[in-house]
Amino acid sequence: MSLNSVEIRTLTPDLLNDFLEYFEGAAFADNPKWKSCYCQFLYVDHNVVKWPNRTAEENRGAACRRICDSTMQGYLAYRDGKVVGWCNAAPRVMMDAFADEPDPDAERLGEITCFVVAKEHRRTGVATALLDAACAGLKAQGLTIAEAMPKPEITGDAENHYGPLSLFTAAGFKFHKDGEHGAVYVRKGLG
């Protein structure tokens, strides 16, 4: 499979069914315990929402509402008309999980927080195409910095859902600061 065969589409309400079908099918075929997230983890304030208590139905409903209201952003990767990947990328101010982490650049920051590539499409350029689209989309929204939180010590595909550090460094991201739970914050100017 070549990189040229990947089509990236911005998540819009008319792609809701594609998003849901992907998350309920190929996205977590090899990691079913994370199937219930629907990429909502960073959209909730963890001082208010007790994440371990959230159900798949609550997260699915929240994802549907956010997608329809355009308060959740990201990119879907397609091959031969079928979704094979997802990247969650949005302005930091949309992600309530960062509410208690003040940052002087918050209004200028776009967060790239999750990659879910179907197992048979990994290492074929899907994540790179999604990252490129995410950076371009954040820049188009007027944001000037892209930030990600890879965990360099993680080697398994499922646990590496934030994206591998090598993906970001290859795209020009630089170390910004250490994070929690083994994460590092990397940033790239979008100027």
Quick synopsis:
The chain has helices spanning 16-23, 56-69, 126-140, 165-170, and strands spanning 7-10, 74-79, 82-91, 109-117, 145-148, 174-178, 184-189. By secondary structure, it is an alpha+beta fold.
Q: What do you see in this structure?
A:
- The protein is α+β, with helices and mostly antiparallel strands.
- It is built from four helices and seven strands.
- The protein has helices at 16-23, 56-69, 126-140, 165-170, and strands at 7-10, 74-79, 82-91, 109-117, 145-148, 174-178, 184-189.
- The chain has a seven-stranded mixed sheet, with helices on both faces.
- Strand 4 (109-117), helix 3 (126-140) and strand 5 (145-148) form a beta-alpha-beta unit.
- The model has no long low-confidence stretch (mean pLDDT 94).
